[in-house]
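wait is this the right file?? whatever heres the structure
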C-alpha cells in the first residue's frame, strides 16, 4: 500500500491486575494511509482507547505485556526508548485529543500558556514564535484569539474541545488521535466540531484516528473503519463498503442499530454482554452473542483478507465461507 503513514503489526497490550491479566489489545494489525481518517468503533471496554494509548505509549505502571511493531513514517517507534520517544514522537509527530477536555486542561493556567508549552519544550520555539503559532491554530479551529487569555472554566464545552484540538495541532503533527471528541457535546456543537475536523483534514492533509461510539458521526470523517471487539480488531474496511455492506456479524448489528433519515427500519440491538478480557473465550469472542454461530466458532477465527485491503476475523468469511468483495 502506497503512502502508508502508520503500520501496526501484531500489537498486544496486557494489564496486570489482582484478578488476572487483562488482554486490552490482543494481536491487532492494520495500516493507515497519510491524509486518511480511520474510525475505530465498538462498545465500551472493547480496547479502543487502549489501542490509542499503546500507539502513543501512554501506559500505566501495571503493564504485563507490550509487544508488536508500530511503524510510523517508516520508523519502528516501538524500538525507541521512552526518553527518545517523548522527545521525537509524542506531540511533535503524533498527538492526542483526550476524551474529557476539561480534565486535560489545567484550570489555573491560561489557555495560551497551555498551548504554548509543547512548542517551547519539543519544538524549541521562542515565546514570541510559540505565541504566533498558538494564535494561528486557534484561528484554524474557529476560536477568537482573545480567548487565549481565558482560563478553561471560562469556555463552554465545545470551546474547550476545540482548544484541546488546537493544542494537538500546535506542533503540526502528522497523526492526531481523537478519543471521543464529541461525546459530551450537544448535536449542533458536534456538527460544528466535525466540520472543523473535516476542514483541517482537507486543508492540511492531517491523518486522524477517530475513536468513537457514534458510527453515524464517524461517517462524516472516516475513510476506513476498524471494528474492535473484546480486545481484537475483528473488521477493517473502507468506509464506502462498511456503511453499505459490513462483513462481520457484530459490525452488521452495529449498523442495524443506527437510525437513518431516508429509510424506515426496525432498529436492532445486540443481546448479552461482551466477554471479560481477563479470561476471554478461546474461540470466536462474539460467538455467544451471534445469531449465526455454528460449530466451527468454538475455534479462534483466522483473519481473512478481502478485496481492497479489507480484513475480517470470522469463520463465515474463511476460504470455504461466504463470497468476498472483489
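ok assuming it is, sequence goes like this
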Amino acid at each position: 500500500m502506497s503512502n502508508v503513514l502508520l503500520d501496526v503489526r501484531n500489537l498486544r497490550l496486557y494489564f496486570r491486575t489482582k484478578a488476572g491479566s487483562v488482554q486490552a489489545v490482543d494481536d491487532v494489525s492494520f495500516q493507515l494511509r497519510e491524509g486518511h481518517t480511520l474510525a475505530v468503533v465498538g462498545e465500551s471496554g472493547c480496547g479502543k482507547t487502549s489501542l490509542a494509548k499503546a500507539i502513543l505509549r501512554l501506559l500505566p505502571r501495571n503493564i504485563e505485556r507490550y509487544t508488536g511493531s508500530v511503524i510510523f513514517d517508516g520508523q519502528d517507534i516501538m524500538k525507541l526508548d521512552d526518553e527518545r520517544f517523548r522527545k521525537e514522537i509524542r506531540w511533535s509527530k503524533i498527538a492526542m485529543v483526550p476524551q474529557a477536555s476539561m480534565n486535560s486542561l489545567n484550570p489555573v493556567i491560561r489557555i495560551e500558556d497551555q498551548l504554548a508549552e509543547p512548542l517551547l519544550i519539543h519544538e524549541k520555539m521562542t515565546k514570541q514564535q510559540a505565541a504566533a503559532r498558538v494564535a494561528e491554530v486557534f484561528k484554524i479551529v474557529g476560536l477568537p484569539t482573545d480567548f487565549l487569555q481565558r482560563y478553561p472554566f471560562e469556555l463552554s464545552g465545545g470551546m474547550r474541545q476545540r482548544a484541546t484540538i488546537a493544542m494537538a495541532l500546535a506542533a503540526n503533527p502528522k497523526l492526531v488521535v481523537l478519543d471521543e471528541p464529541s461525546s459530551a457535546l450537544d448535536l449542533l456543537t458536534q456538527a460544528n466540531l466535525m466540520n472543523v475536523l473535516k476542514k483541517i483534514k482537507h486543508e492540511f492533509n492531517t491523518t486522524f484516528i477517530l475513536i468513537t461510539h457514534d458510527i453515524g458521526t464517524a461517517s462524516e470523517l472516516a475513510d476506513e473503519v476498524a471494528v474492535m471487539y473484546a480486545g481484537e480488531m475483528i473488521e477493517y474496511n473502507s468506509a464506502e463498503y462498511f456503511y453499505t455492506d459490513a462483513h462481520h456479524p457484530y459490525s452488521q448489528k452495529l449498523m442495524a442499530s443506527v437510525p437513518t433519515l431516508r429509510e424506515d427500519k426496525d432498529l436492532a440491538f445486540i443481546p448479552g454482554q461482551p466477554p471479560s478480557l481477563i479470561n476471554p473465550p478461546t474461540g470466536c469472542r462474539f460467538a455467544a452473542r451471534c445469531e449465526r454461530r455454528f460449530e466451527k466458532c468454538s475455534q479462534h477465527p483466522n483473519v481473512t483478507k478481502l478485496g481492497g485491503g479489507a480484513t475480517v476475523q470470522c469463520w463465515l468469511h474463511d476460504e470455504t465461507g461466504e463470497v468476498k468483495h472483489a
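Residues 116 and 132 are 9 Å apart (CA to CA). so i think its the right one actually
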